[in-house]
Specification:
Layout: H1 2-20, H2 24-43, H3 66-73, H4 96-109, E1 114-121, E2 127-133, E3 138-143, H5 153-168, H6 173-176, H7 187-193, E4 194-199, H8 204-212, H9 221-227, H10 256-262, H11 289-299, E5 305-312, E6 317-319, H12 326-343, E7 346-348, H13 360-367, E8 372-376, H14 390-397, H15 400-405, H16 409-412
Parallel strand pairs: 3-4, 3-5, 5-8, 6-7
Antiparallel strand pairs: 1-2, 2-4, 6-8
Helix pairs in contact: 4-5, 5-14
The protein binds zinc ion.
Zinc ion binds near residues 150 and 249.
Length: about 425
């Protein structure tokens, strides 16, 4: 034994000598640097370069390892610290943590057809999660909870994702009850052609504020109180904006100058120039990381978006018209008609009330030439929507996304 050790020691010394005192040392130094950077990337928490990078994300295949597990079970913030789960379990609420748990369950259960991607961070550094369903190369965007108090849209989108992923394995069983709904095309076939990108909660900081109140943000408390709806005190349930008082659905680079002018019209309360619980545009388009994340995803050259839906919850209506013309108009009109027939929601060509805004759907329609719609999914009320609205909203919206997709010209090719 001794001899052997001694001789292997001699061998090692020879290797070390050759590596560090001959030209080979440069090779070894470079190798060490590469190895070190790779390890850094692997263990960096909640980072944007998580395998696949921006817009790519965790693809469904592959073994689950402990690092990934921590990444999305642990709710890492941008600075690497772990979010503290301060929300209490309340059956009337659906929290950010409830969403992350559900997204994880869905991507585990249907790993072949789903994937989870982080598309950005909120102001507070909270990951903005996107669940992808399907493996086609035509992309569809569905966004929820840009407005904090409209967080009821989050569980509805999660339920849509779960339904479509489950249907993928069912040879159309689930769909046969609603025959003709997607025009004889199974979900399996649809998901081979399209990839559905759900961002169920675009405004996690605002949602947490609306659900839990300002105690979550002690350093911002005074500022938040000054921006809150007058007379509401520390009741933040009417809060719509992100945590800096910017309305994330007024942040898109469309119609910006016209909208700013309208801000000076006395009667025009849809546009505010100062940070507020609602309707403030922000200093400039995409001043906020949440809206920036959506705009970047839409611009990603590796993607081919064909359609966009933005989910809100005030009144059961679908808003859709922003001056489209020709074929663009016809496709959008047909899509909204079919969505309206399916859900029972009214159709609204935007009139003066919503005219000035710089919203996501207007941006998708006017700047990206995509058919789009803002879908409002709960009865109009001055009260707060909570999980009591969930069942009805899910029933009305369960197949809304494939119904919308089925109106696209590209859908004709797979029928
Ligand atoms: Zn809204």
């Amino acid at each position: 034994m001794r001899r052997k050790r001694k001789s292997s020691g001699g061998f090692l010394r020879a290797v070390v000598h050759n590596l560090f005192f001959s030209r080979g040392r440069y090779f070894i130094i470079i190798l060490c640097l590469v190895l070190f950077s790779w390890l850094l990337l692997l263990f960096a928490p909640g980072n944007l370069s998580w395998p696949g990078g921006f817009g790519g994300g965790k693809e469904p295949e592959g073994e689950e390892d402990e690092t990934e597990d921590k990444l999305y079970r642990g709710y890492w913030l941008k600075d690497g610290s772990e979010m503290e789960r301060k929300e209490v379990d309340d059956p009337h609420l659906y929290t950010y943590f409830d969403m992350v748990d559900d997204l994880r369950d869905i991507t585990e259960q249907y790993s072949e057809i789903t994937g989870l991607t982080q598309v950005g961070h909120s102001v507070e550094g909270v990951p903005l999660w996107c669940i992808k369903v399907g493996r086609g190369n035509k992309d569809i965007l569905v966004v929820g909870a840009a407005h904090a108090r409209e967080w009821i849209t989050t569980p509805v989108l999660v339920e849509q994702a779960r339904t479509y992923a489950g249907d993928y394995y069912q040879e159309g069983n689930e769909l046969s009850e609603k025959e003709g709904m997607i025009k004889g095309v199974t979900m399996q076939k649809l998901l081979e052609e399209y990839k559905l990108w759900f961002i169920p909660m675009l405004n996690p900081d605002g949602v947490r504020l609306a659900q839990k109140g300002p105690s979550l943000y002690p350093e911002r408390k005074e500022e938040l109180l000054s921006m809150n709806k007058s007379g509401m005190g520390d009741d933040f349930t009417r809060w719509k904006a992100n945590i800096r008082g910017v309305d994330l659905n007024r942040q898109y680079n469309v119609n910006w100058e016209e909208t700013l002018e309208l801000a000076h019209v006395e009667s025009q309360r849809e546009v505010r120039l100062e940070p507020s619980y609602q309707n403030h545009l922000g200093e400039e388009p995409y001043s906020e990381p949440e809206s920036r994340a959506v705009a970047q995803l839409l611009k990603d050259e590796d993607r081919d978006f064909r359609l966009g839906l933005d989910y809100h919850s005030t009144g059961q209506f679908i808003f859709w018209y922003y001056g489209q013309e020709g074929e663009h108009l016809e496709v959008n009109r047909r899509m909204v008609r079919e969505m309206s027939d399916y859900s029972g929601y009214g159709k609204m060509a935007t009139g003066s009330f919503f005219e000035p805004n710089t919203c996501l759907v207007r941006y998708m329609i006017n700047k990206h030439e995509l058919p789009g719609a803002t879908v409002e999914i709960a009865p109009f009320t001055t009260g707060i929507r909570d999980m009591r609205d969930f069942e009805e909203a899910v029933e009305n919206n369960r197949y809304m996304v494939p119904v919308a997709v089925s109106a696209l010209p590209s859908f004709e090719e797979i029928k």
